[in-house]
Amino acid sequence: MSIKVLMIDDDPAMTELIALLLRSHGLEVVACNDSGQSVEMVKRENPDVILLDLMMPGQDGWEVCKAIRSFSRVPIAILSAIDDPAVIASALDAGADDYLVKPTPGGVLVAHINNLARRHIAEKQNALIRHTGPLISPSIFLL
Question: Using an 8 Å Cβ cutoff, are 52 and 8 in contact?
């Protein structure tokens, strides 16, 4: 199963470049260059991980992050050129799970995405088991 990454960044050149990198590592990538459409795209695409820029016209990354958190626990990694501890803390407080400063080495970005996706997929599987019960009934061991 391929990891699906949704990139939300107003710079099409940035999303194209990162998409090429991520696809070369076997990841599925969908991009949104309009923050106003990003929340609907999250609902429609159901990604495993979101890469989100902070500085965008219209809705900024903090607003988008809070809006996504109102309905989803999908991991959000901020990918921003801003390297300020106060901004990083603010983004994490808004609901982001990770924060990476541009430019981020490709291998580091992929490792962070894989880590976030692993946790998210495990959470979804655990939630499914809690909801539907175990696949094997414990009573079969009483034979």
Answer: yes
Q: State the amino acid at position 102 in one-letter form.
A: K
Taking residues 110-121, what's their average pLDDT? Answer: 92
The number of folded domains in the chain is: 1
140 inside domain: no
Contact between 39 and 64 (Cβ < 8 Å): yes
The pTM assigned to this predicted structure is 0.85
Domain containing residue 15: CATH number? 3.40.50.2300
